[in-house]
Amino acid sequence: MWGLEKKIVLVTGASGGIGAATVRQLVATGADVIAAGRAQAALSELAAATGCRTLSFELSSEEDVRRSVEGLDLWGVVNCGGFGGEIATPMDTDIAVFDKVIAINTRGALLVTKYASQSMIRLGKGGAIVNVSSQAALVALSGHISYAASKAALDSITRVSALELGRHGIRVNSVNPTVVMTEMSAFYWGRPEIGGPFLNSMPLHRWATEDEIAAPIVFLLGDGAAMISGVSLPIDGGFACC
Predict the structure, then answer these.
(1) CA neighbor of 36 nearest in space, from 93, 6, 76, 81
(2) Nearest C-alpha neighbor of 179 from the set 210, 156, 148
(3) Which sequence spans correspond to the domains of the chain?
(4) How does residue 235 score in pLDDT terms, banded at 50, 70 and 90?
(5) Top-level CATH class of 8-241?
(6) Averaged pLDDT for residues 81-109
(7) Tens digit of pLDDT for each residue in 100-123?
(8) How far is CA 200 from CA 190, 207, 216, in A?
């Protein structure tokens, strides 16, 4: 159905919720999944549950990414590794935090794409890359100056990569999820004065689940999306349309 059987797919950020959900769904399609992240205990638990392989490297280090990725015979990549940064306005943002958000969310994804695509081109079998962006790249969200900038830049990287890699049969797309109500996100979005008006502006009026983000990622990697490249797909309950 998916056309992903035995294809090697690297998922960064796999120790987090969306990344781990993506690994589980990819393994269910028969893909050979390499789960990458920094939390080794979480990766080991995921490997025990799914049979995926694991890999650990630092997204902000080009040398670490190169050493870890360039020798892999990859068919697919999910760039899910990320850093939320801070809740701040343009007037009070910490530029050091901004630099870290860009280094991980934007530069890190580009580094993985750089070395993964070299392997894909070498193998000559095409492939697919999905970048996990955010609805913050599509609409203005209060307090998200650094995170939004990093994800908007990632969407631009998606489009240019789709143009450049298409000649090699490699598709590149982004997904732009809304909020998944995790323990980490609850500190901000769980406040009634923040989350209430946000949900009232969303046609579906509810938070997303990790599996609801992972499923479109798997779709974009699979054969059903064989003619889709260069898109930024909102997974936001209709928020961006309104």
Answers:
(1) 81
(2) 210
(3) 8-241
(4) very high
(5) alpha beta
(6) 96
(7) 999 999 999 999 999 999 999 999
(8) 14, 11, 24
Question: pLDDT value at position 21?
Answer: 97
**0.90 surpassed by pTM:** yes
Structure tokens at 164: 């450049």
Confidence (pLDDT) at 48: 97
- Choose the catalytic residue: 57, 75, 115, 147: 147
Sheet of 170-177: strand order equals 53-55, 32-36, 8-11, 76-79, 127-132, 170-177, 232-235
Write the pLDDT tens digit of every residue in 44-68.
Answer: 999 999 999 999 999 999 999 999 9
Q: Is 188 assigned a catalytic role? A: no
Instruction: At 208, list the tokens.
Output: 């997303």
Residue whose structure tokens are 């028969």: 30
Q: What is the pLDDT of residue 220?
A: 98
* 51: Cα separation from own chain's centroid: 21
Residue type, 166: G
Exposure string over 150-181, b if 16+ CB within 10 A, otherwise e: bbbbbbebbbebbeebeeeebbbbbbbbbbbe
